[in-house]
Amino acid sequence: MGWLDERAQIPVDPEYGPCWHLGVLPLDDGGTAVTLITSHSVVDGVALHLAIHEAVNGITRDFGYPPPRSRSRGRALLVDAWDAIRGLPEVFRALIACIMLVLERDSSAKTRTSTPSAKSSRSDEPIVVPSVTFSCDLALWDARVLELGGSSNSLFVALATRLAQRMGRLSPADGAVTITMPVNERTAGDLRANALTAITFRVDPDRVTTDLQLIRNEMKQSLAALHGSPNELLKPLPLAPYTPRWLARKMAALALGSSDLPVCCSNVRDLGQDLNRIDGTDADYFSARLFNQGATKQSIERESGQLYLFSGRLNGKVFISVSSYQLDAENSNRQLRELIEETLADYRLTAEVFG
Q: Which of 30, 92, 275, 319 is 20 to 30 A away from residue 155, measured at CA?
């Protein structure tokens, strides 16, 4: 996994490029490992799936962009300035929404039992967040889903909940785990980089080992509420081009609701075989994961650590990638692997673990 970590830290730049890069590593047994790193600013999980599918099948898209250097600098500046002026009403609405959101969250935080804050750290040293991937046989996974009366998605969330409990990522108010899940909104012909919203709900970790119905109910209620009232956290997005990086990081923390130590669970579900066949032959293993490029100890500890899980189904297997950093604890792949294996045992699941 060392090579994957090295590739993950090679910079991508969504503004000036490159926003993605491809790496290939010959293996001793004659095989090959391939890794694709992309910026989430320019593509979400579903869009990346579509992009790889189209690349493998030779499908091209016309995004309507003018050819390079087809406009003079003056003409380009004029067009961009006019686009910015036309977008000002939306920007002002976003600014008002942002102010209201900050005031609401601040008021809510004062009435809630607060999470112990992280100790201030002067160390801004770059770190690689521990990351482990495991892969379960799809038939075994689906059998456990059936026994527990849930869905593949609810079992994924249940594993995340129990793992969070072992890491101490619990609400100080009631010991619940706060789950944040992206929700796909992409439609046919949708060219947005990130066509998604999100739901947030809370789960009692002591009740999810024997019955997944609790999680299914929470997800259904959250999705129904989202349908009736769009996610308020997306309203400030038009401010993104005008927001300095330091403020953007603070707004990201606000969006995640760090006072409740959120756990981010992203599930792309069933993936097409094209992703497993980029050179025309089936790969033995496939996985994907989320990570913070250029993460520093100070920035992660300021947000009380993190726990990201990413899952998909492909090639007769369910893969789950876990990236985690805990405060005042050992942060290593070995320790994370032990916690994952203990959590799998809660559900009588076996898996190949990498990392």
A: 275
From the DSSP assignment, how many helices (H) and strands (E) are in the chain?
A: 10, 9
9, 101: one domain:
no
162 with 332: CB under 8 angstroms?
no
Which residues have C-beta within 8 Å of that of residue 215, sequence separation ≥ 6?
150, 154, 157, 158, 161, 203, 208
18, 44, 98, 103, 118 from 242: Cα distances, Å: 21, 22, 13, 20, 29
Pairing of β 32-38 and β 317-325: unpaired
Reported as a single tens digit per residue, the pLDDT across 244-277 is 766 666 666 665 555 679 999 999 999 999 999 9
pLDDT at 17 over 50: yes
Angle ∠(153,159,117) on CA atoms, nearest 5: 115
DSSP per residue, 44-98: -HHHHHHHHHHHHTT------PPPTT-S-HHHHHHHHHHHHHHTHHHHHHHHHHH
Domain harbouring 308, CATH code = 3.30.559.10
Helix (H/G/I), strand (E/B), else coil: 111: coil
Same domain for 33 and 104, yes or no, is no
33 shares its domain with 146: no
Give the full edge-to-edge strand order of the sheet including 131-137. Answer: 196-203, 177-184, 263-270, 306-314, 317-325, 131-137, 352-354
Could you please report the per-residue DSSP string of 232-276? GGGTTGGGGGG--HHHHHHHHHHHHTGGG--EEEEEEEE--GGGG
Q: What angle do CA 90, 48, 321 make, to 5 degrees?
A: 110
Number of residues written out for the chain: 355
Same domain, 171 and 33: no
User: Considering the entire predicted model, what is its pTM?
Assistant: 0.87
The answer to whether residues 156 and 242 belong to one domain is yes
CA distance 208 to 158: 6
Q: What is the DSSP letter of 339?
A: H
pLDDT tens column, 273-287: 999 998 888 999 999
